[in-house]
Known about the structure:
single chain, Jelly Rolls, 2 domains, six-stranded antiparallel beta sheet, 20 strands, globular
Amino acid sequence: MDAGIIEPVRLRSRIERNAAGGTLIRQVLGRDGIPDEPVSAVVELDDPGAMPIGIALVDASGGRAARTRRGATAFHCLWCRDERNAAVWVGSGSEAAPSRHSISPGDTVYLPGDSSCAIGPGILGYEVWSTMPKAHPGTDAFRPIPTHGLERYEGYNRQTVCAAGPHLALERWKVTQPLALPVPDGRALFVTNLVEPMAIVWRGGADLIGRAESRLLPPGLGICTFIPDGLGYLLVSYVPDLLADVIDPLREAGHTDAAIATIGDVFGT
């Protein structure tokens, strides 16, 4: 990227391998460049200089539970081999043993900084975690369990706020018409396309984001418009202003504070 020109950035990803992984990232998501061998995660972002959050595609299909990363984390379920028996085990600093919770595609579990999670075998997911050295430990009022998120609409595009807390937020967009995403002043967005290739247009340029590919939308980009070829799905991650980005829009969409509190440690600061 030339000096002075702001445009979406494709970051280099990193492949992780261990016994918990499989081949779902390549087979189910259709991600190019993934070897035909067990892969536990494709880490898309782990550079605190770019954003103070990390992001990975996670494959836990290798036959045993996979641990999530430590600290404030959101785990979003994309696909399950056996939806009736898919589960995660969640524990917090106040519990003696982790609790089992069923999880389905589209569900997300938000974990405060003092919690941990093990993903049951046969699950493909998307993980977002804080890279802050001392993530917020959570409040006594919040208990991490999988939820399906809260919805609002912009035109015909459906936004699901999957998870939110002081250090991270995760949204899922069902895109049926051009979606204009403003990049907040002084902050960045990280966007992953889940299905068919989608056009990206910004002031001064255009690009194509492929299936299961990601882009960093850096501060100063302004408005970035995503144009689907039919139906598109995007995951959007960022460090939120909880009131402006999460609470107020969901209240305006008719959601109660009790409902908003289920998606994460939203009212804990």
